[in-house]
Amino acid sequence: MIIVIAPVSLAARTADRAVLRSDGGTWMNGNPALNTIAVFPDTLIQTQKGHSAKIEADGSSVMVQPETMVQFEADELVLDHGSLQLNTSREMRVRIGCITVVPVTSDLTQYDVTDLNGKIKVVAYKNDVRIHYQSAAIRRS
After folding, report:
1. I want to staple 74 with a disulfide (CB 3.0 to 4.6 A). Which of 16, 59, 86, 122 is the partner?
2. Annotation: CATH topology of 8-133
């Protein structure tokens, strides 16, 4: 029997996985997160007051600011509330309800997305982002 021991960051180096690094005060799927742990699609990450976390995915890094709730979906983050700072060269998107923020290029794009009290703020620092709004379909009988 051969046992191979590899760091968590090595296991998370594909497009659908990431590594979460935190300073404590971070919850993952409703439970306290380890300081360094692998993240997979559908993972819910929540930072507490005074604590932040960093998501490192292949080609992207995301600072999850204090008091933020976000779901990791591989190439997309679903922001429930709070603030994210993204550096991405693989066009990682952020979705807030029916609004999606999408980098316009695969070159390094740096941008912030904040959703506080229902007010969304997007700031692009390096390269541009596109804001896509998808309205809900009205169904009539």
Report:
1. 16
2. Jelly Rolls (2.60.120)
Spans of all domains in the chain: 8-133
Output phi, psi for 9, to 5 deg. -60, -30
The count of other CB atoms within 10 Å of the CB of residue 19 is 20
12 CA to centre of own chain? 15
Q: DSSP per residue over 40-59, as a string?
A: -TTEEEEEPTT--EEEEETT
**Facing residues of 78 across strands?**
71, 95
> Which two tokens mark 46?
């929540």
Report how far apart the first and last C-alpha atoms of the chain are (Å, whole number). Answer: 63
Residue 41, amino acid: P
- Count the residues in the chain: 141
What does pTM read for this prediction? 0.84
Please write the tens of the pLDDT for every residue from 27-76: 999 999 999 999 999 999 999 999 999 999 999 999 999 999 999 998 99
78 SS3 class: strand
pLDDT in tens, 108-126: 999 999 999 889 999 999 9
